[in-house]
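I am still getting used to backbone structure tokens and would like to learn alongside you. Would you supply a protein for us yourself, any chain you care to pick? Start from the sequence, derive the backbone structure tokens from it, and show both lines together. Go ahead whenever you are ready, and we will take it from there.
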Amino acid sequence: MKYSIAIIGAGMAGVVAARTLTQAGHRVTLLEKSRGFGGRMSTRRSDFGGFDHGAQYFTVRDPRFQKALDLTAQGVVAPWQANTVRVLDDGGRVLAAAPAPKDIRYVATPGMNALVAHWAAPLVQGLGDAQVLLNTRVTRIERDRLNAQRWQLRCESTTTEAVASPVLGGFDKVLVAVPHVQALDLLRASQLAVGWQEQLEAVRVAPCWTLMLAFPHAVGGAAFGPSWHAARSSHHRIAWLARENSKPGRSAVERWTVQASPAWSERHLEDDDERVKAKLLKVLPKSPASAPTPPTPLCTAGVMPKPNRRWVCRTCWTAPLAWACVATGVWATGWRRRLCRGWNWRWT
């Protein structure tokens, strides 16, 4: 039997589900509140180049994921040979070489969102009669007014332009592939699946302040900044620091992405952007803070949630309502070591 399926969320989970279901012969409508694809594999654009302010890289541990990359992502994914150090002191002044990684670190080019956008391209082009609606937020899931056995979605635009259709109907199934807080809010607004709401409430996430720095007058020379490309720490206020221009396919302008630790981000969750910028700039490990050219702090991306307690139920069937809703994403399957830089592939 072929179904008409609505998928809410166009991150990695949503796009892969849409491709899989479309190839199985189902008619898919993919809705995303942002202007592009990526979710946590997002890239922030700037005049100086991109910043991977979500996942910094991903590893491959599932042969099915490796096969998908080999068959469909040639030229979009490349290994990242990063020279990584560890921060050993609270002041960020004592460094040591980090052990060699067990898994190859991959990045998408020219930004982490490129892989998701590449996989979404056939859907945009109408693969299997698929429909893709960006800048569209789903505010409510409810019974279809014309057919009580199906479902309709109430939508609103996230831009100044009006949404093409405020109500989309005729769906046999609905799949939710958004962060758990958004999923919970949607179910509450829809007055659906109370038992599932209780499970979502048990999911715990930790915030992550992310600072993006550009050195416009430096173009990736060996004489600028440190000799390493990334640094990590388990106790410093900065948990991860990466040289964006060391990744393949990136702009040569010197750029760094700085991610604070979950504990520090939690303590400073209510601080404003400027205060967080000042605090993180003050303790950058050695260079690039000591570089001769002052950096340009482009922005501080506020709360990038990292799950520290997984959701144990990845698929929920609400039989009395005769609909199936599969919720998935990194918050459901877990982060690699709770950090927002690794992606371990799991099928749900």
Notes: DSSP finds eight helices and 20 strands in the chain. Confidence is low (pLDDT under 50) at residues 309-324, 335-348. The two ends are 21 Å apart (CA to CA). Residues 221 and 254 are 8 Å apart (CA to CA).
